[in-house]
Amino acid sequence: MLKLFNHYVPSSTIQRLVFDALLLFVAVVVVFVMQARVDGGLVATVVPSAFAFAVTMMILNGALGLYRAGFGSDFRQTLMRVGMSIVLSVPVAYGIFQVLPWGEFAHEALELNVIALLGFVVAVRGFTARRTGAGVFVKRIMVIGTGSDAAAVEHALTHPANSSLQVVGFYPAGAGDEIRIDPKRVIHFDGSLLAAANHLRVNEIIVAVKERRGGAIPLRELLDCKMAGIKVLDLSSFFERVRGQVRIDSLRASWLIYGEGFRQGWGRTLVKRVFDIFVSLLLLVLAAPVMVLAALLIVIEDGAPVFYRQERVGLGGRLFKVTKFRSMRRDAERDGKPRWATANDDRVTRVGRFIRKCRIDELPQLFNVLKGDMSLVGPRPERPFFVDQLTRDIPFYAVRHCVKPGVTGWAQVRYQYGSSVDDAINKLQYDLYYVKNHTLFLDTVVLFETVRVVLTGDGAH
After folding, report:
1. Is this model's pTM higher than 0.85 or not?
2. Banded pLDDT at 430 (limits 50, 70, 90)
3. Per-residue pLDDT tens digits for 147-193
4. 58: burial class by Cβ within 10 Å (0-12, 13-18, 19+)?
5. Which sequence spans correspond to the domains of the chain?
6. Checking DSSP bridges between strand 2-4 and strand 7-9, what pairing results, if any?
7. 54-88: pLDDT as tens digits
8. How far is CA 426 from CA 68, 210, 233, in A?
9. Pairwise CA distance, residues 416 & 458, whole Å
10. How does DSSP assign 213-266, residue by residue?
11. Are strands 204-207 and 231-234 parallel, antiparallel or unpaired?
């Protein structure tokens, strides 16, 4: 895993992006040199612009999920995503052609060849994704503990995104430590922890034991390992890195207070606000025809009102009215009792089911963003009734209210539709990751992931 702007990205993903960008760059330069017969002076123009083109197209396809870990395991899904990437890349590529200084020597046939090269690279990456390995750099990991937490670590590392992390064994934390993993993988070593780590060529140690007092964990030996250059992570830091979440069951208040992240400052707030206003205005202009059509369809099927306004909890626990397109029947809560919305809710109209699946119902919240009650990206705002319940039942739930709620969020693109307290716990773990690490880079990643979810229906909320 590599940490870019406080966000963890699988190193294998970066390697594939860099490789494909270089491949496309070299191919574009070769095509121009062979077909346009450019001289030495024009080569100086082609090379940097070809590099900019290749990087832009690979970042676009990476944002659309082509390089997402686990992609390529299903042929139909692969075909759909490759097709989507090509369809969206072509008009963007032609737009880039108008900006780059290629017009004086590039003709239509040459541009078509560049587009064909782009399609070839995208298709090859898509249909070979399932055969990608761990990448060049593999980290050898030793886990301290053999119980349920150690088993959870082992399970997390089976995800394709973590193929560059290899568990070499499990080191018992104490004589009475339970064994929830394969006993054959337990490390039996007569020397110290550092000696065992050096013997197994360990790069990292994961402490998969919650209790740190009473001698359950060899703290002195862990310090020796850290001083020897071996990285040591606790459960919270481990799950933050490999799952993009802050686990509630391994979280302590001291980690929130003393750990990195969870910083809120005027500079970050100002940048985020400017970004919200600019992108919201752009999206409102682009989405205006879709919003008008959605309003007409709602009226035709179920009459007025078109919009649905409901009280939600925002920044610092302040209440505000969220605005959405109405997707449920007018008598959805005729008994006055709040109910969780579910994925196949029988109160949803036919038009409502479609606009929810495509997230068109969320578009009026862009006005909430312009007003300042919401942000484009952040934890989804909940109703006061459920917030009171969840705050009582879930530790640290109120932490999510230290940033503005969002139209979309990290939890929405990482977790399926939630309709229970257990789902709220799982989503909170992603919300806490966002609150801890939110940057303009992560906001951009979430927005692109939202586009992917809408277009593919993969894990849509």
Report:
1. no
2. very high
3. 888 999 998 888 766 777 889 999 988 766 788 899 999 998 888 99
4. buried
5. 2-131, 139-243, 266-456
6. antiparallel
7. 888 887 777 777 776 655 555 666 677 777 777 77
8. 21, 19, 22
9. 9
10. STTSS-HHHHHHHHHTT-EEEEHHHHHHHHHSS--GGG--HHHHHHSS-----H
11. parallel
Q: Which helix (H) or strand (E) holds 325?
A: strand 319-325
Q: What's the Cα-to-Cα distance from 53 to each of 42, 44, 100, 118, rounded to whole Å?
A: 16, 15, 8, 10
- Phi, psi of 9, deg, nearest 5: -125, 130
Locate 141 and state its tokens. 């990991």
With a CB cutoff of 8 Å and minimum separation 6, the contacts of 141 are: 157, 165, 166, 167, 168, 202, 203, 204, 205, 206
Highest-scoring range by mean pLDDT, 6-10, 200-204, 424-428 = 200-204
- The tokens for 339 are 């109910």
Residue with tokens 């707030």, as numbered in its chain: 269
* Strand, coil or helix: 314: coil
Q: Is 52 helix (H, G, I), strand (E, B) or coil?
A: helix
Q: Which two tokens stand for residue 173?
A: 């934390």
CATH class of 139-243: alpha beta
